[in-house]
C-alpha cells in the first residue's frame, strides 16, 4: 500500500487527482489534502505519506520551500511536482530536490496514472533494498563478534597478515595502523566452592566487562579463558608518553568499575606497535600482569632497559619472569620442576644433565643481562664446581644458589635505579621550587608514567608529591624571611606562590605562625620556634 498526500490550493485539481487514483490505481490510498505549503508540512509530519503531489504555487510557503522543509525531517518521502507554470527555473529547482516526476496543469489522466505507477515501482524497490540492508545488518551484527575474536586471536598469536588490516579496518570502521594491548585478568571467586557455578559467574563478569570496556572508547576486545584482550588503536604520530598515560587512565576507569562491582582484576598494558606486530604488545601486557605488583601495570614501568621482549620456552620464560619479579620462592620452584624434567628425560645421566644446565645457565644469563648486568654473579668457581660434581642434587643446589644470587643482584640494581630517579626528581624540585612544578611534568622528564612516579615518590620520601614541594617552599621561605631587605610579599613570589594570602595560610599551617610573625621574631633576634 502506497500513501499519497495531495497539496494544491485548487480544489478541482485535488478532486481530479484523487478521482484518477481511486479509479485506476490499486494499493494506493490518498490519505490527506493540503491547501497551502504550511499545511502540507504539518500533514506530512502527521500522516507520514510515501509520496506528496505538491503544487509549486500556493499561498504563503510555496511548494519548493515546503519540499525542502519536509525533506529536512522526512528524507524518505518522494515528491511529484504539480504546476501550471512550465518554466525552466522551476523544473531545474525541482530536479535539484530529487523529485520523482513533474506534472503540468491541466492534468492528463494517463500521465497521472503513469506517474503513480512510477512512484509505486520506486517505493517498492526502496522497501526491498531496505529489507535487504536490514537483513545484511542483522547478519553482520551476529557475525561481527566472531570476526572480532578471530582478528584478535590472529593478532595475539602473530598469525596476522598485513593485507588483512584494511579488510578488518573497513569492517569495524577503525583505523588499524597502530595499537597497544590491554589484558584484563579476572580474579576467580575463591569462596565459591561450586566450580561450575564459579566458572559461569566468571564468564558473566567477563561478558559485562568486555561490553563496558568497549563503551569507554573505540577499541576491539575478546574473551580468552579468564581474561579479556583489548586492542586499542592509536595514531602513529601521537606522543608515546601521552599514549602511555592515556592508556593508564583508560585502565583506571576499568578498575574503578570493577571495584564498584567488588570484582578483583589485574590489568597489564603493552606498548603501541604497528598492528601487524600487535603480538609484541600482547606479550608485554601479559608480562606486566605477571611481574607487576599493582592492579594496573604498564610494561614500561617494569623494564629497566629498552631491551626487546623475551622469546623463551615456557619453563625458562617462567623462571626468568620469577627472577625479574624478585620471586625467589617462585624461581626455586621452577628450578625444581626443571630438574625433575631433566632427570626424567635423561634417566639421571649426570653428563647430559650438566650439559643442559650449562645451556640453561647461559640462556638465563643472556636474558637477564638485557635487564641488568649480572655477569659478576657467575663466579668462576661455580663453573669448576659444576664440572667436578657427579651428583644431581649437588648440581641442583649450585644452580639454585646461582639463581638466588641473580635475584638479589637484580633487586639491588632495581632499587638503585629507582632511587636514582627519585633523587633526580628531588634535585629538580630543589632547583625549580619557585616555578610551577607539576607531578605530570616531572614524571615526563623521567620518562615514567605519572601513576608509577607518584607511587615511587611516596615510597621513597614517605610523603606525597604536593606535600613535599610545600615543605621545600616553606623551608626556603624561612631562609628568605631572615633577610630584612625582603618583604613577606616578595618572599611569597620567590618561593613559587602567586597569592600572599594563600602563602600565609600554608606557612601558618606548616609552622604554626604567619610569615609576618616569623619575620618579626627573627628580626628581633628571638628564637623563631619554641622547642
UniProtKB/TrEMBL annotation:
BP GO annotations: phosphorelay signal transduction system
Pfam families assigned: GGDEF_2, HTH_18, Response_reg
Domain (HTH araC/xylS-type): residue spans on this chain: 423-521
A single GO molecular function term of this UniProt record: DNA-binding transcription factor activity
Database matches in PROSITE patterns: HTH_ARAC_FAMILY_1 (PS00041), HTH_ARAC_FAMILY_2 (PS01124), RESPONSE_REGULATORY (PS50110)
Signal peptide boundaries: none
Residues recorded with modification 4-aspartylphosphate: 55
Residues covered by the Response regulatory domain: 3-120
Keywords tagged on the record: DNA-binding, Phosphoprotein, Transcription, Transcription regulation
PANTHER family recorded: ARAC-FAMILY TRANSCRIPTIONAL REGULATOR (PTHR43280), HTH-TYPE TRANSCRIPTIONAL ACTIVATOR RHAS (PTHR43280:SF28)
Function: May play the central regulatory role in sporulation. It may be an element of the effector pathway responsible for the activation of sporulation genes in response to nutritional stress. Spo0A may act in concert with spo0H (a sigma factor) to control the expression of some genes that are critical to the sporulation process.
Protein name in the entry: Stage 0 sporulation protein A homolog
Taxonomic source organism: Thermoanaerobacterium aotearoense SCUT27
Amino acid at each position: 500500500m502506497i500513501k499519497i498526500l495531495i497539496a494544491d490550493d485548487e480544489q478541482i485539481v485535488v478532486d481530479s487527482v484523487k478521482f484518477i487514483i481511486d479509479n485506476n490505481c490499486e494499493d494506493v490510498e490518498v490519505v490527506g489534502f493540503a491547501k497551502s505549503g504550511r499545511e502540507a508540512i504539518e500533514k506530512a509530519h502527521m500522516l507520514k505519506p510515501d509520496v506528496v503531489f505538491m503544487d509549486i504555487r500556493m499561498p504563503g510557503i510555496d511548494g519548493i520551500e515546503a519540499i525542502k522543509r519536509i525533506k529536512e525531517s522526512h528524507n524518505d518521502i518522494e515528491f511529484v511536482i504539480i504546476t501550471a507554470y512550465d518554466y525552466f527555473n522551476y523544473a531545474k529547482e525541482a530536479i535539484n530536490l530529487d523529485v520523482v516526476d513533474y506534472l503540468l496543469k491541466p492534468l492528463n489522466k494517463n500521465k497521472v496514472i503513469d506517474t503513480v505507477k512510477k512512484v509505486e515501482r520506486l517505493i517498492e524497490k526502496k522497501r526491498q533494498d531496505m529489507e535487504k540492508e536490514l537483513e545484511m545488518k542483522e547478519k553482520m551484527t551476529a557475525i561481527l563478534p566472531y570476526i572480532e575474536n578471530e582478528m584478535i586471536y590472529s593478532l595475539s598469536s602473530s598469525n596476522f597478515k598485513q593485507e588483512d588490516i584494511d579488510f578488518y579496518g573497513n569492517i569495524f570502521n577503525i583505523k588499524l595502523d597502530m595499537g597497544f594491548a590491554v589484558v584484563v585478568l579476572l580474579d576467580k571467586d575463591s569462596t565459591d566452592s561450586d566450580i561450575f557455578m564459579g566458572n559461569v559467574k566468571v564468564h558473566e563478569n567477563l561478558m559485562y566487562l568486555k561490553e563496558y570496556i568497549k563503551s569507554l572508547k573505540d577499541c576491539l576486545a575478546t574473551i580468552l579463558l579468564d581474561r579479556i584482550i583489548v586492542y586499542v588503536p592509536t595514531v602513529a604520530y601521537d606522543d608515546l608518553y601521552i599514549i602511555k598515560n592515556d592508556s593508564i587512565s583508560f585502565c583506571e576507569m576499568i578498575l574503578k568499575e570493577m571495584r564498584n562491582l567488588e570484582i578483583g582484576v589485574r590489568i597489564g598494558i603493552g606498548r603501541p606497535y604497528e598492528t601487524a606486530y600487535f603480538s609484541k604488545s600482547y606479550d608485554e601486557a601479559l608480562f606486566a600482569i605477571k611481574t607487576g605488583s599493582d592492579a594496573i601495570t604498564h610494561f614500561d614501568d617494569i623494564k629497566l632497559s629498552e631491551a626487546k621482549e623475551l622469546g623463551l620456552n615456557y619453563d625458562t620464560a617462567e623462571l626468568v619472569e620469577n627472577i625479574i619479579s624478585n620471586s625467589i620462592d617462585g624461581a626455586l620452584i621452577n628450578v625444581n620442576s626443571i630438574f625433575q624434567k631433566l632427570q626424567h628425560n635423561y634417566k639421571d645421566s649426570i653428563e647430559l644433565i650438566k650439559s643442559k644446565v650449562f645451556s640453561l645457565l647461559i640462556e638465563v644469563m643472556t636474558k637477564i643481562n638485557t635487564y641488568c648486568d649480572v655477569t659478576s654473579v657467575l663466579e668462576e668457581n661455580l663453573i669448576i664446581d659444576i664440572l667436578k660434581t657427579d651428583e644431581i642434587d649437588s648440581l641442583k643446589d649450585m644452580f639454585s644458589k646461582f639463581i638466588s644470587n641473580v635475584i638479589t643482584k637484580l633487586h639491588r640494581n632495581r632499587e638503585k635505579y629507582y632511587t636514582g630517579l627519585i633523587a633526580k626528581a628531588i634535585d629538580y624540585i630543589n632547583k625549580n621550587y619557585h616555578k610551577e612544578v607539576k607531578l605530570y611534568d616531572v614524571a615526563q622528564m623521567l620518562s615514567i608514567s605519572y601513576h608509577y612516579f607518584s607511587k615511587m615518590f611516596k615510597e621513597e620520601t614517605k610523603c606525597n608529591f604536593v606535600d613535599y614541594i610545600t615543605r621545600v617552599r616553606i623551608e626556603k621561605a624561612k631562609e628568605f624571611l631572615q633577610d630584612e631587605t625582603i618583604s613577606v610579599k616578595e618572599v611569597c613570589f620567590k618561593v613559587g606562590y602567586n597569592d600572599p594570602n594563600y602563602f600565609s595560610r600554608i606557612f601558618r599551617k606548616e609552622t604554626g605562625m604567619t610569615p609576618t610573625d616569623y619575620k618579626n621574631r627573627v628580626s628581633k633576634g628571638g628564637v623563631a620556634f619554641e622547642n
